[in-house]
Every structure is written in structure tokens, then in C-alpha cells.
Design brief:
Distance between the termini: 44 Å
Strand content: 15-25%
Largest sheet: 8 strands, mixed
CATH superfamily of the largest domain: Zn peptidases
Number of domains: 2
Radius of gyration: 24 Å
């Protein structure tokens, strides 16, 4: 897949395909609602019944794990029960497992059959079709790999048993795939310079506004926190990139900020080899923000979106910033550098300052995404992400979006007295503490200094990578945040004014 070309990210979808098209396809996913008996219209009903009997399983077991069997026609069939009594995450996980069984054989085409009694709730059928199509789309596009043999992409999805518009689901899937694709690229293929070029091509293709604040410009502007990190790289290719989607009659404005550290050595406080492994994924926050921009603009949400990407590398060199340095951020705040591996909050400080100021006035909402602290992984593992909210309404919306989207989040305390740990004798604030306690909370309190009084959500992406996949996604790179963010934006749009 060409990263810069988004028009062919996903497999082609055909609704109600012709019988001749179906006859050529040998991989079929059958989805039906939870029921006490097998539906009369269930595709492969007798084969499924025989398979369950042979295994000594019951129909109820299908809500926990999909069942597969080979038909007499040589085709592979997988059946999965869609249970509204389970959470969106559980349903997504089941469909991911079901789709993966089929995709393991690298088919060109996949049939999704939505079954159930003729009186089944249309909304339920729609939910089944949307969830199944999403699982097929996000898992049908292989991520970048340099192997001699690369898995081919899924080319076609033939959807039967439901007619409707899957445009919004396709937009969400495209955003997730884009975020995961960038995150999976190795560090020699995604330096800040290369990343900027690819983002530029994306902007031209999607019709987004673009503005770059390169190293020299940021240095002249006085963005000392960002420059402190970026100066360690000899290429000086770091930049803050702004992308804007400006629809007519936008009802609100939202600023998205993404941490884009393309590789993190830790700087002078050098990481160990084990800790440095995977640090090319430290740009995941920028990829999530970029994927969310793609999904929201594809859906044509009536929101102005300004996306600010902080792109840099944290290198060890004679020019790299050091413990004890005092730098002045763009908003005038002086920062005492305590640990050079806390570079993410440094680049975000100046980026948040720009985002909070806005382009066409201050945004109505500010959200930042970052793989920021290991403490968040210690607290949650890699199955949830942590969020911090500036007010109770935002906190409630963030949690509700996690439940609805299947991308689960946990709210963390944000009390001001935590900031006592960041008091400095020589500057306005310490970058972090060496005590190692509650660093995820201290990082959020530090970032608050650069947001002002804007409504704000900070998302610490502890679930950016989870071995074996997560929810609807089978790859280690999860793209977590795109589906959650899209649900949150739609939720905020639907909320009454004031």
C-alpha cells in the first residue's frame, strides 16, 4: 500500500452481489444475532449444526468463540453470534477472531452474510453489518513488511443480507489503517523529513490546508522546549506540521495534537537496548491524530479540525539537551530539564501552545494523543488507554466514547496538588520528577501549563501496541484512538449547545 495514497486503502465493497460473483468466492463469514435456535435462513445451517454436534458444543458457545468448517463445495465458512448483551469490545474481539480465520488463507474476496429471522430488528442488522465490515476492512490490509513473501491485501468484500450505507464505517476503517501503517514503518523509512513529505502528499490528496514550522522557524519564534529536543538530531529536519480541514458551515472547531517522535533513544539519559526496542512507534500519537483527521474529513463532519503534529527525534549527540538545562517555552514558561527521556512533554508543550492559540480563533476543544509515559502502561497494561479531562462533562464523554467504540479508556485523577512535585528552585516548572511516582499524572499536570483554560483531553496511548491485537484489530499495532476519537467528535456534535 502506498502510504500517501488513501483512495485505495480498503477492499472494494459490493452490496447484494450477483449469484455468479458469490459462486467464485470460497471464504464466507456468517453473522447472526443471539437466539435460542438456529435461524431458518442461516447460511450453512446444517453444516454448522453438524459441526457443533461433533464438537459437543452448544449454540450459546458461538457468542464466545466463532466456529469454522469446510463445506462440501470446498469453501471455508465461519459463523459468529452477534450478542447485544455483550460490550462493543467483546463483539469486536469475536468478529476479529472470525475474520482472522478466513484471512489466514489470504483470499482475494470475502463474503459476509448477515442472517437472522425476517422480523429481525433493522437496527440490529445494521449493527452486525457495520461491525463485520469494519473487522474485515481493518484486518484485510497488511501492514508494511520487508519480507520476500508479503501477504496480499483483501480486494473485495461481498456483503449479503443487508442494504445500507457503510460510508461512515469505511471512513473509520481508513483512519485506523492509516494510523497503523505509519506506526509500523521502521525508523529508517520514517524520519521526520520523510514523514513531512508523506503528510504533504496526503494533504494535497485530501484537500487539507498545510503549514510547516521547521526547526529554524521554531527557533526564531522562541519554541525552546521543542527545539531543545530537536537540536540533538544532526539533520535538523524536525518540524511542527499543521493540517486543517475547513468545511463550510462548521459548527465548532477542534484542535488535535499528536506526539511524533520518530525514534527515541532517550538522549543523554540513554535507554537500555530492551527499552529502546520499538521506539520507532513513539510517533503513534501523530499517526492517530492523522488517522482521525482522515476519518472525520471523509465523513464530512461539520467541524473545523486543526491537527498539529510534533515531528522530531530524540537523539544522543554533543548538541543534545542535557539534565540541568533551563529552556524557555513558546508561552514564556521556563522549564528545568530533569530527564532527557521525558522529551515527549517537551515537544508537546510548544505544540499545545500553538494549538490552544488557534488559527481562526481559539478551538472549542483540544485533544492531544501521545505515547507519553511508561507509568500508564504500568497502571493499565496495554488493553486500555488513560485519559485526563479538564472538566466532568468531557470526562463523561470520553468514557462513553470508549464504551461505544470498543476502544476502552480509563479516567485518571488530575488534582492540582500533584503539581507540587514539579516545583523548581531555578525555573517556573520542572519537566518531571526523578522520584518515579505517578509520572503519567505529573506529565498531564505539566502539559496543562501550555493549554490555558481551553476544554482539553489528554490521551496517554498505553494501548498503542498490544501483542496479538486488540478489539477489532488483529495486528500488534492497534490504531487505538481513531474510532474512539471519531465517536467523541460525533458525540460532541450531538450535544445541545451550551
Amino acid at each position: 500500500m502506498r502510504t500517501e495514497s488513501c483512495n485505495k486503502l480498503l477492499a472494494e465493497l459490493k452490496l447484494s452481489p450477483k449469484p455468479a460473483e458469490l459462486q467464485r468466492v470460497r471464504h464466507t463469514l456468517v453473522v447472526f444475532p443471539r437466539t435460542d435456535a438456529l435461524p431458518d435462513d442461516l447460511l450453512g445451517r446444517d453444516l454448522l449444526q453438524a459441526t457443533l454436534s461433533r464438537r459437543g458444543e452448544k449454540l450459546a458457545d458461538l457468542a464466545k468463540s466463532p466456529v469454522s468448517a469446510a463445506g462440501v463445495d470446498g469453501g471455508l465458512y465461519v459463523w459468529a453470534v452477534f450478542d447485544l448483551g455483550k460490550s462493543a469490545f467483546e463483539r469486536d474481539t469475536l468478529l476479529c477472531k472470525a475474520v482472522s480465520v478466513l484471512l489466514d488463507e489470504n483470499p482475494e474476496s470475502l463474503v459476509i452474510e448477515i442472517c437472522g429471522d425476517s422480523c429481525a430488528d433493522p437496527a440490529l442488522r445494521s449493527a452486525m453489518a457495520e461491525s463485520a465490515a469494519y473487522a474485515a476492512w481493518v484486518n484485510g490490509t497488511p501492514l508494511p513488511a520487508q519480507r520476500k513473501k508479503v501477504d496480499p491485501p483483501l480486494k473485495r468484500i461481498l456483503l449479503c443480507g443487508w442494504k445500507g450505507d457503510l460510508f461512515s464505517v469505511a471512513a473509520r476503517a481508513a483512519g485506523n489503517v492509516l494510523a497503523r501503517h505509519f506506526t509500523a514503518l521502521p525508523p529508517n523509512e520514517l524520519t521526520p523529513a520523510v514523514y513531512r513529505k508523506r503528510i504533504g502528499r496526503l494533504a494535497r490528496e485530501e484537500g487539507w490546508e498545510i503549514e510547516e514550522f521547521d526547526f529554524a522557524r521554531l527557533q526564531k519564534m522562541g519554541a525552546g522546549a521543542f527545539v531543545a529536543v530537536a537540536q540533538g538530531s544532526g539533520e535538523k529536519d524536525a518540524a511542527i506540521v499543521r493540517l486543517s480541514y475547513v468545511p463550510k458551515r462548521a459548527r465548532a472547531s477542534v484542535a488535535l495534537v499528536g506526539k511524533g517522535i520518530c525514534f527515541d533513544t532517550g538522549g543523554h539519559n540513554l535507554k537500555s537496548a530492551k527499552s529502546m526496542a520499538g521506539m520507532h512507534e513513539d510517533m503513534n500519537g501523530s499517526a492517530v491524530a492523522l488517522g482521525l483527521l482522515l476519518a472525520a474529513s471523509r465523513r464530512k463532519l461539520p467541524l473545523r479540525l486543526d491537527v498539529w503534529l510534533a515531528l522530531a527525534q530524540n537523539h544522543l549527540s554533543p548538541e543534545a539537551y542535557k539534565q540541568g538545562d533551563i529552556v524557555k517555552a513558546l508561552n514564556g514558561t521556563t522549564i528545568e530539564v530533569v530527564h532527557t527521556d521525558a522529551e515527549g512533554r517537551m515537544v508537546l508543550a510548544d505544540t499545545l501552545t500553538l494549538a490552544a492559540k488557534g488559527v481562526a480563533g481559539k478551538p472549542d476543544l483540544l485533544i492531544d494523543f501521545a505515547t507519553l509515559t511508561y507509568d500508564m502502561i504500568v497502571a493499565l497494561g496495554t488493553r486500555y488507554c488513560g485519559v485526563f479531562a479538564s472538566d466532568a462533562q468531557l470526562a463523561g464523554d470520553a468514557l462513553a466514547a470508549g464504551v461505544a467504540s470498543g476502544e476502552r479508556v480509563c479516567l485518571f485523577p488530575f488534582d492540582a496538588d500533584y503539581e507540587e512535585e514539579l516545583e523548581s528552585k531555578v525555573a517556573d516548572i520542572k519537566q518531571c520528577s526523578l522520584e518515579g511516582e505517578a509520572d503519567h499524572i505529573l506529565a498531564a499536570r505539566f502539559l496543562k501549563r501550555f493549554v490555558g483554560e481551553r476544554p482539553w483531553l489528554h490521551v496517554d496511548l498505553s494501548a498503542a501496541s498490544n501483542e496479538g491485537g486488540l478489539g477489532a484489530v488483529a495486528s500488534d499495532q492497534t490504531g487505538f484512538g481513531v474510532a474512539w476519537g471519531l465517536d467523541l467528535l460525533v458525540r460532541r456534535l450531538a450535544a445541545p449547545a451550551g
